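idk why but the lab printer keeps eating my pages so im just putting this in chat instead. protein + adenosine-5'-diphosphate:
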Amino acid sequence: MHDLSDPIISLNGLGPKAQEKLNAIGIYNLEHLLFHLPNRYQNKTNFTKLDQAQVGSEALLELTIDRIEEINTKQRQLLCYLSDEHNRTLVLRFFHFNQYQKQQLTRGDLIQCFGEIKIGRDGLEIHHPEYRLVSKGQSSLIEKTLSPIYPLTAGIHQPQMKKWINIALEALEKSTVIDNLQSLVKNSMPTLKQALNTLHHPKIDDDIEKIADFKHISQQRLIIEELCAQQLSLLKLKNERKSAISNIFKISNIFSDQLSKNLGFELTNAQQRSINDINTDLSSKHPMLRLLQGDVGSGKTIVAVFACLQAVENGFQTAIMAPTEILANQHFHGFSDYLKPLGIQVAFLTGSQTTSERNKQLALIRSGEAQVVIGTHALFQEAVEFKKLGFIVIDEQHKFGVHQRLSLTQKAHNTPHQLVMTATPIPRSLTMSAYADLDSSIIDELPPGRSPIKTVALANNKKDKVLEKIRQVCDQGNQVYWVCTLIEESEVLRAQSAIDTHLYLEENLADLSIVLIHGKMNKQEKNDIMVRFSCGDINVLVATTVIEVGVNVPNASLMVIENSERLGLAQLHQLRGRVGRGSDASICILMYQPPLSSNAIERLDILRQTNDGFKIANKDLELRGPGEILGTQQTGIANMKIANIVRDGYLLKQVNYYAAEFLQFDENRQQALIHRWITHDKAQYANT
Ligand code: ADP
Ligand code: MG
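predcted complex ->
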């Protein structure tokens, strides 16, 4: 008799090779087999009458064998002609068979057969049916419940998988499996045992359509449990953080008031609210880990500046980390503009600096003279030593791995406070699931006076129209971005396409200043070009997607994006956000190569219809799934066993409620839930 904790190797007929294959898909013991659910079912609960068999569907039939014929066309075939009591006929066709099989098929015998009904030259056929000759002592194909068809992995066959899972189901009957959720869901849902039995062997009157839609209550029961386990592991992380000790910042208004006076604009309510959230966190003794979300252009930078003023006034250094050189550079200038007038020292560190420049910056950081340090990944490196790091700002966190973020944390004095900014709004369902360990502030309004960006889609053969528009915009004194986007190609090819476009534009708009910027240029060149574009010296900037994030030139009012059909929604929205930053009406032209796929039409349409980054992010999640959006942040959300955040997002409210309840249970029960659903590696990751 088997136990659910038995390793799969203890199963009869399961050797080391099969073990390895099953391990690779996360199946180590019998309990894991229970959670390997069918992806569809076959109905062998009763016989279908031949006149009711539908072409294209599967049916179980019981018919009489009329004759057997072996034919030698291109490929040898065995045909078995069958009929029912009304002389309606059907042919079984075998492309692979042996003589023993042929001899067994005796004229006049009843045969049970199951398979997809096809239509052949002589009427109905089934190719390679599953069949039984009951008169020869073979067991009937009739089953009491629907028969599961399991997803397989190479080298494992359906009958094996069925047999092993059935043994696991027998063990489940006898076992006292820990039903983690039962005390919470009580009678509103089936028990774990019931849910698993139903999903492996549904009764004929169970709602199969609901199962196919993943909306059956037995599935919901398991989905909720899995999401709950994910949620719980993140909430535990959050609790751990909230019990750690950080530095208490005394909130002061001296620098903040000065900065407000220098700004030249009023903060929006949403910005003020976010600053208040942050100040509350900074003045508590526990480390802050706050996600600051806001659409492109909503003004996240200034919120971070206010936060770092508090660190400065409390004698702590701030590190600001950006994912690219261009963005780090932009932040360096942006932050310096605000901080230098207040007498605050800003250091800058990137991988491309000369050794002497770098040493100079390192010294400033080490001595504590630099109160704010801005940089790229270079900030993680071992040589970087802070005097008293107390606050970390991370821009676009999904571009960094968790380990990188942690290695910076370790350079700090006590656990530092952290502010994480995302350039792309995150769909609510992902914030609730993947980021449940973070607190969150949302900037949900744009600064006043922005005119919405008008977005149009134009086929590549309408380039004339685009040239006309460029001329018009430049005549008005505004500037243009032309983005070349060859994706999945090398940086060299990308640069080449930009070079070609640059030539084309120069030929056609000879009197304008058109300048090219791409990833193969050195940092100094890129920097110089960006400065010239910012001052208005350049009319048209032809760029590869290096300008995707952060760049802020309010006078630019036209954005042309090539090959827009090949880019993700979030990326297009991010690019488009480079215009519409001033008061002039802005336009974004999405160029595409017809014909468009229906998915591409849908994506371009949503961009034309809305400027709301949150709506766009939701659509992006729907179209591309969570893996793409979470990037290097491997939270396991993208790799769940049963749940799917897009499909099952509607259950998250319930899940949050149960997960919070679960936190009250004893540690062993919590760990049992987490370990059932989160494989060892991921659980370890969650504890780092
Ligand atoms: P993002 O959220 O995309 O990082 P930024 O922080 O770059 O946005 O801000 C975009 C632009 O809006 C900047 O030029 C900034 O100076 C300006 N800005 C920010 N807040 C306000 C405000 N409350 N009123 C007017 N302009 C603002
Ligand atoms: Mg920004």
